[in-house]
Design goal:
Layout: H1 3-22, H2 28-45, E1 54-59, H3 61-66, H4 69-86, E2 96-101, E3 110-114, H5 115-118, E4 132-134, E5 138-139, E6 145-146, E7 158-160, E8 176-182, E9 189-192, E10 197-200, E11 207-208, E12 219-224, E13 227-232, E14 239-241, E15 244-245, E16 249-251, E17 257-260, E18 263-268
Parallel strand pairs: 1-2, 10-11
Antiparallel strand pairs: 1-3, 4-7, 5-6, 8-9, 8-18, 10-12, 12-13, 13-16, 14-15, 14-17, 17-18
């Protein structure tokens, strides 16, 4: 039995003992903690491929019956999406969290599994939002390539299709925050989820700037492989990330600073 297996065995049995002793209900933070350990364990095993996209949470029948399943599932999806960013990794396919009742588990105890490791496989669908076509090669910190198709397309194509029905649009989840920390619009905030967000002076933008040095459509932020990716939209003065002008796509990490004209923004992810 390896170290990770021993650690998991002791964790489950010791926590199970205390929960039986004190007969406590399973709480949301405990599920988060279990998922975080599962994600970190997966992250330590992968290099370029990214972590699994399907996670199963098992709990006692009594805990399962009292859980608001739909709400908890969505909150766990957002939690995992943030962990992907905080850990600096990537994920392919649609993120799924599934809750199950397990008659063998005691009240207050849960366990987690990931579907890649336990045989369900990965969802191979591209995770770029349906309303957006983005083809521009860029790299993540671990060397993985984003936005490059089989033909090796190297041109920037950023198109928004407003004719898509709402049922095909990604569900809105607030995963990160873009905050203006300097400039004419200091204090402005934009919540970032799975939808593309545009930034600039035009009224149709998701984040409207009054900075005269910003272009009407200055830059945009897409959601690819469960990471937010910054693009310059052909602006006059360029888009800067941590003081350097971006050339192509730039994958955002927590506390990154984005420069647009005389405006400075910070990218924040709740830990």
């Amino acid at each position: 039995m390896g170290f990770a297996s021993i650690e998991s065995f002791l964790e489950n049995h010791i926590e199970g003992f205390f929960n039986k002793k004190f007969d406590s209900d399973l709480e949301f933070p405990e599920i988060e903690k279990k998922l975080q350990r599962e994600i970190e364990r997966c992250r330590s095993k992968v290099r370029r491929g990214g972590i699994p996209n399907i996670y199963d949470v098992y709990m006692s029948e009594s805990d399962y019956r009292r859980m608001p399943i739909a709400r908890i599932t969505e909150e766990l999806r957002v939690y995992i999406a943030r962990q992907v960013i905080l850990l600096g990794t990537v994920m392919d396919g649609t993120l799924m969290v599934r809750l199950h009742a397990d008659a063998n588990l005691s009240r207050g105890v849960c366990r987690t599994e990931n579907a890649k490791e336990y045989g369900d496989g990965m969802d191979s669908d591209d995770n770029v939002a349906d309303a957006t076509i983005v083809r521009l090669p860029g790299k993540f910190s671990d060397g993985a390539v984003l936005g490059m198709n089989e033909g090796g397309i190297s041109d920037t194509v950023v198109l928004k299709n407003d004719n898509l029905s709402s049922r095909h649009a990604p569900v809105k989840h607030d995963i990160a925050v873009l905050r203006v920390i300097d400039g004419p619009d200091k204090g402005a905030v934009l919540d970032l989820g799975e939808m593309q967000a545009s930034i600039g002076r035009r009224e149709q933008n998701d984040l409207i700037l009054t900075d005269p040095r910003a272009s009407r459509l200055h830059s945009c932020i897409a959601y690819e492989r469960h990471r937010h990716v910054l693009y310059d939209a052909g602006s006059l003065n360029g888009t800067y990330l941590n003081g350097e002008k971006i050339d192509g796509a730039a994958v955002l990490s927590p506390d990154d600073e984005i420069g647009i004209g005389g405006t400075l923004l910070v990218y924040e992810v709740e830990s």
